[in-house]
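Moderator note: this is an archived Q&A kept for reference. The question asked for a predicted structure of one protein chain; the sequence and the answer are reproduced below.
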Amino acid sequence: MTGWWCEYAAIDGAVHRGVTITARNGRFTAIDADTAPSADATRLAGLTIPGLANTHSHAFHRVLRSRTQADRGSFWTWRDMMYAAATRLDPDTYHRLARAVFAEMALAGQTAVGEFHYVHHQPDGTPYDDPNQMGHALLAAAEDAGIRITLLDTLYLHGGLDAGGYQPIEGPQRRYADADAEQWAQRVDNLSPGTNQLIGGAIHSIRAVDPDSIAMAAESTRGFGAPLHAHVSEQRSENDACLAVLGGTPLTVLDRSGALGPGFTAVHATHVCADDVRRLSSSGSTVSMCPTTERDLGDGIGPTLDFAEAGIPIHLGSDSHATIDHFVEARSIELHERLRSERRGLHTAPELLAMATVNGQRALGWQSAGRLAVGDRADLVAIRLDSERTAGSSGEHAIEAAIFAATTADISTVVVDGTTVVADHHHRRVDVGAELRASIEELLT
């Protein structure tokens, strides 16, 4: 039995004082408010919240942070450096980099990650002796970092979509592509997840996967009850090509192909129409928003208020890792809407907290996570309320302080499935800064 006493805790969107929490075998067994601390309980000062979920990650993109702002940070600067980094990855370097990136997520209170994985093969496109060697490197990295992972193995078949139709795979894309959807499904079926790990599927985008192959991927993931994610309408040019060649928006094509449903997540969904929103809502699909990447790349602002009003669950990813901070991602959802609408208070702090926690955990297949509730996974994140950013906050408004003022620097303790992974602001297993620096230098110098 493990126990904690929380100065304040966020339970179902409300702040409670003096909360005693106990857990056994990685699950909460009791949660009681208005208690005095016992001698054997670990004291968590400030506000304790459930574990955050990062629903959209490309681990190797972490090497691009700050480096792609040269030449005014154009998209082409970013893409060229991304391709260069992907070309140099091998199973060992990918494991080392991903271990450090996932440990950075742990420091940021993220207890689960959805890794959108498409660097599958050797640089010339030849499979490794173990065709899933890169995927297994990512699974091992998450285990080393102490967080759960849903490996979203990504189907990638074409080099692009334009007026001439689907284009052939070329250059660095050879690493991403399987021969066809059937080969992809067979390879994914051979992945071996560890304890507290899940395998899911992903469709890279309508630009990289044709409708027949989307249908096969959707059928395959439904067959083993896995989540299915896809990049959707990230840029206007994607919509234009899809309308011209396939006769509908990306979400229309995905819907026709049977991809939408309760297990489906549209990543970004930045440029969607009213009919797209209706399709997402009626199918029970969800949306992963990645505001820091979407603004870093100049992609636009997604219609999050439309999603919320239609009852579509929103959750959060850090995508290219321009930053790894779900407080920033969450507040950006509201602040972007304020800029668009010239109104305030469109998404409340408890709603934004739910996007960062329970909505995201469920979208990754972790149905009993993201809440402080008996029987759920024992994930805890303690946030200081006395830092330069949060000092002066009242307990009554602790969730607002966390969402609108805190940063990852204010996280003192992180518990994943009952095990303390971060204590006193330090990861217990990984020297995160040193390992990030060494891994990035290895790949880019």
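Archived answer notes: The radius of gyration is 21 Å.
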